[in-house]
Q: What sequence folds into this?
């Protein structure tokens, strides 16, 4: 060991401030042992083993924390150098570093790179033959490796756990840690089990790493892994070489024109992301035909060898542009990507940042364009509904699967969708299977482990002589198949394709292509492995209603996904610095304006107008007030969606408007100077500015209604905020519109026409927000929307009548009854905090934590609702118990 350390120079140095020096025993050449504090080791010499000369921002702090034996959470963007934060400690620490990652495709690349530098490293996953997996397990148990990469599914194997226990784990690194959180964008059940496995391994020092984690996700990662007072590092999200920009599109035609102009002005390699496979193929064809630039398509509907070929062509520079769905990206580390275009709006800011961040890895200026069209929101809403299917859809999938006797069941998700006629995408079926797997009634098999089959219908000693001598690959493959089949001619023989590949030391794609080509022989039959994830039913006789499925939790997660989608809309419509918005979202403290995004580059005159607080001109104010009035008028009849309101305001002659009598409203045609898409964007802006809100009363059918603030602005009782994020081109059209005739302006009588129920509903929601804010709980925990609507409709006059409203029991009458009665009788201005609420505000802080937990929420959910660390919640529970409050031990397990 002394010789190994001498390769890195002097190891003397002071322990960093605030770091406890961890120690390890080393053995000298004469056999005597000595101890060395890891945090006193000079770290720079180790960098040479990775071909580096210095640390990137934040890396040293993370490495020193790990070497001090302290758990930590590291949030750095893709390409920010997260891997060094566990790879370097793996060299220093005396023991095994176990890396958990879902990215099988990246494991071999990373292991090959580290092995080339002489590091003792390997991976164990399903791409290896079983005998090779067992051999590596034995070597790991014998301490032959410092670093071992595995997928989370590996922890299902008892043999693997035995080998890990035999050698012990010095450091556990959980990469892509957002997968452990149900609040994250890529939740995976096997990740959720890592906390339990970590405890089985003795709770070794753990580093959790991710490129995208909001505050709620970070809290959940810490909770799920049960990290011990971890340090959290958030750094590297600022990308000064990236130019973020958003272009607003009135329709598909303008989107095509904007993309065409962008590509004319932007040379070099780039990625265009679309939301669907069909759109990816259409856009790729347009680029190739109109721009003459080499283009390739990539999406999950392609065969694996097709995707591999497309990725290699792009990575190797054979093609300039790849048009892809979000299936393209994991492990893409091409340094010279000059642009990333989002042709369709992504579903989350995490996804947007991760995909846009693939541009400019070499540090040179690169462009990131988002083409914003409000209709794209519907696509993302469809994806959300598919990811969180209803009880009825899950039941239908379960009943179908348990009625099929096959084992395993080889039906693709698309086939199940079509057989049942489901209103969700194939991904929705996958979500159903994942949910049913969590209830232990089925097991989803890994697609790479699906078996292929081959049949030889000939008694010839060998079929190789039927092939030309120059067909060398096919001849080698056929010899291997004949050896595999042996004397089992004229029957299907099942095998693992990767085992066959390993037996001839070949390339997977070449071997599978050869097997397909051999099908041309009449006496040779090759059946490829099932392309989807086969399902094995574990239980078929359990009625659906008896399954342990938490649909309330799914509804909360779906609500969180809709809020993430709203964040993307707000980002697209924002007038603030794009980079600062991203940094704020991810919790990065460095939030100074970048100075070079599209918003930062807006004309100085516009900035001066906004900074001075000058009220927007009459044309803009009138358009906003008329839009708000239009929402109010439709709301008085029945609740309408954004597009229907836009049609009414633009004066559309559609038969549907006539049928609904919306053409009789006083606001019909008031914005005929604008397009329907312009008005739809304006409504989106009003929602982002909290002047209106969207509420989903039926699946995928959001309706628009005014907020209390929107009512005040409509009436002229409150000024219009000068920073309203109206896109420049729309702002120009509003300013160029002809002045309004006096008869067209909303009058006081128009404002008085607003139904009292609309104002009352807005006032109730405003009251609920104040109460929830005081209590530190979510608004729906006070009263649900359905309860507020019934209150606005029935208007109870006494506490006894309040008890007749759905969702209000004696406890809520005692707590909120006085406020509600005064509000229902006299309006929001008559409501001041009641004596009961004022008394409640005097409760200690731990009381509110106890209340949330006592209503059935988990510690992780409580942390998200109350914005507290787990340690604080544990302390609050102890204080509540000491105060005599009923506390359940299960709350903290």
A:
């Amino acid at each position: 060991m002394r010789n190994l350390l001498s390769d890195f120079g002097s190891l003397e140095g002071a322990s960093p401030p605030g770091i406890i020096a961890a120690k390890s025993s080393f053995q000298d050449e004469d056999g005597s042992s000595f101890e060395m504090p890891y945090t006193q080791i000079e770290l720079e010499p180790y960098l040479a083993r990775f071909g580096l000369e210095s640390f990137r921002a934040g890396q040293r702090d993370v490495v020193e924390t790990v070497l001090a034996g302290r758990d930590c959470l590291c949030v750095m963007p893709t390409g920010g150098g997260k891997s060094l934060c566990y790879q370097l400690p793996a060299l220093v620490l005396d023991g095994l570093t176990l890396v958990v990652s879902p990215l099988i495709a990246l494991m071999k690349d990373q292991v090959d790179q580290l092995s080339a530098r002489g590091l003792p490293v390997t991976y164990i996953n399903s791409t290896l033959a079983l005998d090779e997996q067992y051999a590596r397990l034995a070597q790991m148990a014998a301490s032959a490796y410092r670093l071992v990469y595995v997928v989370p599914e590996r922890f299902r194997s008892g043999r693997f756990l035995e080998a890990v226990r035999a050698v012990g784990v010095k450091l556990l690194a959980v990469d892509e840690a957002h997968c452990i959180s149900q609040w994250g964008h890529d939740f995976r059940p096997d990740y959720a089990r890592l906390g339990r496995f970590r405890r089985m391994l003795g709770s070794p020092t753990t580093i959790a790493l991710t490129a995208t984690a909001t505050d709620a996700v970070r809290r959940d990662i810490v909770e799920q892994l049960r990290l011990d007072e971890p340090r959290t590092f958030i750094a590297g999200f600022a990308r000064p070489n990236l130019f973020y920009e958003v272009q607003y599109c009135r329709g598909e035609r303008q989107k095509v024109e904007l993309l065409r102009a962008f590509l004319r002005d932007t040379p070099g390699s780039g990625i265009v992301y679309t939301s669907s496979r069909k759109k990816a193929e259409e856009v790729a064809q347009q680029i190739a035909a109109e721009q003459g630039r080499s283009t390739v398509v990539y999406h999950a509907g392609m065969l694996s060898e097709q995707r591999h070929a497309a990725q290699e062509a792009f990575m190797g520079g054979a093609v300039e542009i790849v048009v892809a769905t979000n299936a393209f990206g994991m492990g893409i580390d091409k340094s010279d990507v000059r642009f990333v275009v989002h042709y369709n709006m992504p579903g989350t800011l995490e996804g947007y940042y991760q995909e846009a961040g693939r541009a400019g890895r070499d540090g040179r200026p690169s462009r990131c364009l988002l083409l914003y069209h409000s209709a794209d929101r519907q696509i993302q809403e469809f994806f959300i509904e598919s990811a969180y299917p209803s009880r009825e859809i899950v039941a239908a999938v379960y009943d179908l699967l348990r009625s099929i006797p096959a084992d395993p069941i080889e039906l693709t998700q698309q086939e199940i969708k079509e057989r049942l006629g489901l209103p969700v995408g194939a991904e929705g079926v996958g979500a159903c299977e994942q949910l049913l797997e969590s209830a232990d009634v089925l097991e989803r098999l890994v697609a790479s482990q699906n078996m292929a089959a081959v049949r030889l219908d000939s008694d010839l000693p060998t079929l190789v002589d039927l092939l030309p001598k120059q067909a060398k690959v096919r001849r080698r493959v056929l010899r291997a198949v004949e050896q595999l089949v042996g004397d089992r001619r004229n029957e299907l023989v099942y095998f693992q394709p990767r085992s066959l590949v390993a037996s001839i030391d070949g390339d997977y794609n070449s071997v599978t292509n050869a097997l397909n080509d051999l099908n041309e022989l009449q006496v040779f039959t090759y059946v490829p492995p099932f392309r989807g994830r086969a399902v094995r039913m574990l239980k078929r006789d359990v009625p659906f209603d008896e399954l342990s499925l938490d649909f309330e939790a799914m509804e909360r997660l779906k609500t969180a996904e809709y809020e993430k989608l709203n964040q993307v809309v707000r980002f697209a419509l924002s007038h603030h610095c794009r980079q600062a918005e991203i940094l704020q979202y991810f919790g990065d403290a460095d939030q100074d304006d970048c100075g070079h995004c599209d918003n930062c580059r807006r004309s100085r005159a516009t900035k001066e107008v906004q900074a001075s607080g000058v009220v927007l001109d009459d044309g803009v104010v009138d358009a906003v007030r008329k839009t708000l009035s239009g929402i109010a008028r439709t709301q008085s009849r029945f609740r309408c969606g954004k597009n229907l309101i836009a049609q009414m305001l633009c004066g559309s002659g559609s038969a549907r408007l006539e049928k609904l009598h919306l053409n009789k409203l006083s606001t019909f045609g008031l914005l005929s100077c604008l397009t329907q898409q312009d008005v739809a964007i304006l409504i989106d802006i009003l929602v982002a500015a909290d002047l209106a809100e969207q509420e989903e009363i039926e699946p995928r059918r959001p309706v628009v209604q005014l907020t209390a603030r929107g009512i005040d602005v409509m009436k002229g009782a409150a000024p219009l905020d000068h920073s309203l994020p109206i896109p420049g081109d729309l702002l120009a059209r509003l300013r160029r519109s002809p002045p309004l005739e006096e008869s067209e302006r909303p009058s006081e009588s128009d404002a008085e026409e607003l139904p009292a129920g609309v104002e009352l509903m807005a006032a109730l929601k405003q009251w609920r927000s104040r109460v929830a804010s005081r209590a530190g709980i979510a608004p729906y925990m006070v009263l649900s929307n359905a309860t507020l609507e019934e209150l606005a409709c029935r208007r109870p006059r006494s506490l006894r009548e309040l008890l007749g409203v759905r969702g209000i029991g004696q406890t809520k009458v005692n707590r909120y009854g006085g406020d509600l009665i005064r509000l229902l009788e006299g309006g929001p201005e008559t409501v001041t905090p009641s004596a009961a609420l004022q008394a409640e505000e005097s409760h200690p802080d731990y009381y509110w934590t106890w209340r949330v937990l006592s209503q059935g929420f988990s510690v992780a959910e409580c942390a998200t609702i109350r914005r507290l660390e787990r340690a604080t919640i544990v302390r609050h529970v102890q204080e509540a118990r000491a105060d005599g409050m009923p506390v359940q031990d299960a709350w903290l397990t």
Q: What stands out?
A: The longest helix spans residues 551-573. Residues 1-36, 608-615, 744-753, 828-842 have pLDDT under 50 and may be disordered. The two ends are 42 Å apart (CA to CA).
